[in-house]
Amino acid sequence: MLTAFAILTDGLAYAAYLFMVAVGLTLIFGVMKILNVAHGSFYAFGAYGAAMAAGIYYDRGLPEAGGFLFMILLAMAIGLVLGLILERGVLRFVYGRDEVIVVLVTYAVFLILEDVIVFIWGPQSYAAYQPMVWAGNVEIGELVLSNYDILLVAISAGLALFAYWALKFTRYGRLLTVVIFDRETAAAFGINVTVVYTVTFIIGAMLGALGGAMMAPKISITLGIGVEVIVLAFAVVAVGGMGSIEGALVGALIVGICRAAAVHLMPQIELFVIYAVMALVLVFRPYGLFTRAQPRKI
Amino acid sequence: MKNYAIRMLRSGAAALAIAAFAGGAAPVQAQDAGSVKLGLVTFLSGPAAGPFGVPGRNGAEILIEALNAGKVPAPYNTVGLGGLKIETKIIDESGSAANVVSEYRNLVQRDQVDAIVGYVSSGNCLAVTPVAEELKALTVLFDCGTPRIFEEKPRKYVFRVTPHATQDNVAAARYVLAKKKNVTLYSGINQNYAWGQDSWRDFVGAMSVLAPKAKVDKELFPKLFAGEYGAEISTLLTSKSQVLHTSFYDGDLESFIYQQAARGLGKRMTILATTAESSMKRLGNKIPDGSIIGARGSNGPLARDTELNKWFVKVYTDRYGTAPTYPSYHMAQSIIGLKAAWEKAAKAKNDAKPTIDEVVAAFENLQFEAFGSTIKLAIGHGHQGIAEIAYGTYKFNKQKNEGEIVDVVRFPAECANPPADVNAEDWIKGGMKGAKCD
Predict the structure, then answer these.
(1) Cβ separation of B259 and A222 shorter than 8 Å?
(2) DSSP output for A202-262
(3) Which of A83, A244, A270, A272 is most buried, most CB within 10 Å of its CB?
(4) Are B84 and B150 found together in one domain?
């Protein structure tokens, strides 16, 4: 019973982390059909930005809770600026090109941004653990749960609900849905697709940076953290279906629970299980669990 | 169309400018006839740069500057190597093993270096070793831990003065059992690759010999650079283990320590971290008091208080604002070992510049005074160093607002290393016969 409870709580905490890093990636793919390798850089910039904010804030001895808010705001501001620069400065020049070329461009951007991180923050690692320590923990039987993990799950759930509401019940969400279904038709009906692309990419970048900021208190912020994240995010998005936000949520839950079960029951297959789940889903649903059937255009 | 092309060129040029600005290669220094050219290879980018690569490079930088100025304390107060100033070319170790080997060949064949000191990754050490033998290039491996380098076959041109990983884990088991005699159940969390698996294998092997009644509980091998250890910490919280062994390093160690601190794992069991000295300053009071800390030898705060060590700590701290950690020691002792061998060979030629083969002959079975302890190239057919190793217990000093290592125990080199020409794994399995711990 204790093990089952631990698998559930660990699985949810890991799923919250996965959903946060995957949601921006899937949003950008859904709207723009760009497999954005540079999404890992948004995560890394968010984490570094959060660490910078933590340094600025906590060194002044200000109230603990406010520091967390400042970390998130600064990280998302960095995501906004970075997203705008990349979309307007690089990606708009390759719209309409072969998908492979666009992927290569985002990969090149990712590599460049890795060096930009070294240039700005140097090679040393950073910490922003204060919010996690401040949040404390709760004991349930033999298990001690971090309140910060519980907060992460709540924020991810809130993010999923907000995304659902924004897509279904707001004007911009409906416009986005139209562009997702068919860009050309959307343009023919007078939707400014260029603006939709720019705004979507910026939102995706801000979500990536948010993921980095949310994880910053739990991790050592070092060079290369974006690489690890992008691989996991791809696995989640492949399971759920490229471009589907509900798919990212379900994919994150499946991968999170399966990995937690593996760690508790058979730790030797912990790494294998993530990609085994992905392979199994793709055998039966080659486009992931939540991708709609695509009409063939003549 | 023309405007589009110009825009593309502009954005491309901007991207190239950023790349060149941010990732510029280290300049090659001019070489003159009276100098020794040294290739230095370490991580300057990627996750291993911060905790290992850059401290290693910093250690090399201050030491070579001081050697060239003749300002290192005796017995190393002669200029450079045998009076010849050292010129360096620094190469980033990041990239695939194939890329690392290509860069190695470039250093030897294109840049014509006299010797190479480098490599943090065990995989890279294994990759360049046969190439060093093929090219007959004197190579001193500075930080990698795999015992396989000299166990697979004898080497002529490759040396490693830094002891290999077996001693870290044998000494760790000895320390645990000296301080916690009633250990009956222990667990391990180690990275899922050669370093983590070999470390755990050696630790379990040593525990089996020294405390046969103590049993392994959980064996966890998360992937390298996983970063998130929630499920692993839950697994350990629900176990009854008294000790947790980890050879985590770098961001993995720091992430794990932050996450366990939030969930009180250190209150349930003693954390034994074989490399934690390298992250001690950064982790501060997040490391639970009572944790057992290693420094891969007598390095950092565990180093002996010699004149040479005092000098090294001072010049390093004055330059970089922080004390050197064990990777800095590993790099510095590798260069000092090369200097000792070079000058021994030069002395035999009345101070003329020795050939590489003469330096190699002088290097074999060398014994020299390093910064933290004395090093003897006693195993691996005289190519692998052994040295004493120290472990201690962590205590956070609130008044000084920094961590300390107390209750330090030093294990002689022959206590934690296999005898000459005995495979480390076989030595442990055979009951660690011949170990001299008095």
Answers:
(1) no
(2) HHHHHHHHHHHHHHGGGS-B-TTHHHHHHHHHHHHHHHH-TT-HHHHHHHHHHHHHHHHHH
(3) A83
(4) yes
CATH number, domain with residue A68? 1.10.3470
> A248-257: per-residue pLDDT in tens?
999 999 999 9
Cis peptide before B75 (omega within 30 of 0): yes
In-domain check, residue A211:
yes
- CA trace torsion A187, A193, A195, A196 (10° rounding): 120
Total beta-carbon pairs less than 8 A apart between chain A and chain B: 164
Q: What pLDDT digit, counting tens, does each position of B227-264 carry?
A: 899 999 999 999 999 999 999 988 899 999 999 999 99
Which positions in chain B touch A271 (Cβ < 8 Å)? 192, 222-223
Quick check: B220 and A263 CB within 8 A?
A: yes
**Same domain, residue pair B393 and B374:** no
Q: CB distance B54–A142 less than 8 Å?
A: no
Helix (H), strand (E) at residue A212: helix A193-215
Each residue's pLDDT tens digit, A4-59: 999 999 999 999 999 999 999 999 998 888 999 999 999 999 999 999 999 999 98
A121 assigned to some structural domain = yes
B29 touches B77 (CB < 8 A):
no
Contacts of A222 in chain B (CB under 8 A): 47, 50, 250-251, 254
**Residue B279 sits in the same domain as residue B402:** yes
Q: Which of B8, B53, B258 sits opposite A93 (nearest CB)?
A: B8
Whether A227 is in a domain gets the answer yes
Cβ-defined contact of B230 to A93 (cutoff 8 Å): no
Contacts of A119 in chain B (CB under 8 A): 21-22
How far does B61 lie from chain A, in Å, by closest CA? 16
